[in-house]
Write a structure and sequence with these properties.
Elements lengths: L5 E13 L2 E7 L8 E2 L2 E5 L4 H13 L2 E12 L4 E11 L9 E8 H4 L7 H12 L3 E2 L22
Parallel strand pairs: 1-6
Antiparallel strand pairs: 1-2, 1-4, 2-3, 2-7, 5-6, 5-8
């Protein structure tokens, strides 16, 4: 989508684990330049956070995912950031040649001690490894402006 459709105050990211490895991309700009971070980006107008994380991870890494739970939410007076645990579905990792210079599957446990992985990415990887997440809970409503999905702890499971 064109950049004028970007909602700069709303962003998403995903921790993708596969066979004991985590998907990371080496960032090419800003404070994350040169760092291996979890992939993500900004929401486009008309997208849900789930749709945005699917699109962003695929655009940046070539990997197709399915978001399955929320690992964390960061918000302040200006913006919010939702991080999902996302299940690998298909694809081969590749750089987008713009926002990242390389995309790698790295042993998840060793990513936690690497100097080139920022603290926030480490915390989110650790949360995914420990199961510290809010799974998708079935939720239905007939209200016009109700959320399309709900993540929370379901004691019935």
């Amino acid at each position: 989508m064109p950049e004028h459709n970007t909602v700069w105050e709303k962003s998403v990211a995903g921790v993708v684990l596969r066979d004991g490895k985590v998907l990371l991309a080496r960032h090419t700009y800003g404070s994350g330049n040169g760092k291996l971070i979890i992939p993500g980006g900004y929401i486009q107008r008309g997208e849900s956070p789930e749709q945005a994380v699917i699109r962003e991870i695929n655009e940046e890494t070539g990997i197709t995912v399915k978001p399955v739970s929320v690992l964390g939410i960061r918000f302040n007076m200006h913006d919010w950031y939702v991080v999902f645990r996302a299940e690998y579905l298909s694809g081969t990792e590749r750089s987008d040649g713009d926002e990242n210079s390389e995309v790698l599957w790295i042993d998840a446990e060793s990513a936690l001690s690497r100097e080139d992985v920022p603290d926030l990415s480490k915390k989110l990887i650790a949360a995914a490894l420990s199961g510290g997440e809010m799974p998708l809970v079935p939720y239905e409503t007939s209200e016009k402006y109700a959320p399309t999905s709900f993540y929370g702890f379901n004691k019935g499971e």
